[in-house]
Write a structure and sequence with these properties.
Elements: H1 3-30, H2 34-46, H3 48-61, H4 65-81, H5 86-97, H6 106-118, H7 124-193
Helix pairs in contact: 1-2, 1-3, 1-7, 3-5, 4-5, 5-6, 6-7
Length: 194
């Protein structure tokens, strides 16, 4: 999955979550249920993580490698000061997982995303986005493993091919030697019959 398709998928997820959340807020307010409306509005506020994270992913993907490293360092600094900053943790995981990132480390991204998901403190929209990103990193890890296995198979086949080529050359050389011996014997026989 290339980065453009990945970004489009994330934006679609955000739009779907935003649309469903707006309908819930409108229904709660229309029914005069102010208690639920304030709870849902709080949830809508929490959903800004999704919007902000998707905007971050889009802008980060377009940065130069030097700027990506700078943003990565800044995010790490923020996390060093406050390890519970969810948005910074999400940004860090995204930087580590994105295919266009110059600081990509899929294993670290996978571990960080797994930790965030296991905390069970995410808003449903955040959970859906992080789950998608986690699935992407897991799939990437599986695909990388398959690629390594295919490379090993290819290298093994290449070695077998080279061994057969060498064996073929040796056999061809022996055949040529036998032909030369036969030719020499035939020449000798033809000289003796003359």
């Amino acid at each position: 999955m290339n980065s453009k398709n990945f970004t489009m998928l994330l934006c679609s997820l955000m739009l779907a979550c935003a649309c469903s959340n707006n309908a819930i807020v409108s229904n709660a307010t229309a029914n005069g249920n102010t208690g639920k409306a304030s709870t849902i509005k709080t949830s809508a506020f929490k959903q800004n993580n999704v919007t902000e994270l998707l905007a971050f992913i889009d802008s980060y993907s377009n940065l130069t490698p030097e700027m990506q490293k700078k943003v990565f360092a800044e995010t790490n600094q923020i996390l060093a000061e406050n390890k519970n900053n969810l948005l910074s943790r999400l940004k860090l995981a995204s930087m580590l997982a994105l295919p266009t990132s110059r600081v990509r480390d899929n294993a670290k991204a996978q571990n960080l995303l797994q930790d965030i998901l296991q905390e069970n403190t995410l808003h449903p929209a955040d959970f859906a986005l992080i789950s998608l990103l986690y699935e992407y990193t897991t799939d990437y890890a599986k695909q990388s493993q398959r690629n390594r296995e295919e490379i090993k198979k290819l290298e093994s086949a290449q070695q077998k091919y080279e061994a057969l080529e060498l064996k073929n050359k040796v056999l061809e050389q022996k055949l040529n030697e036998l032909k030369n011996i036969e030719k020499t014997m035939n020449d000798r026989d033809s000289k003796s019959s003359n």
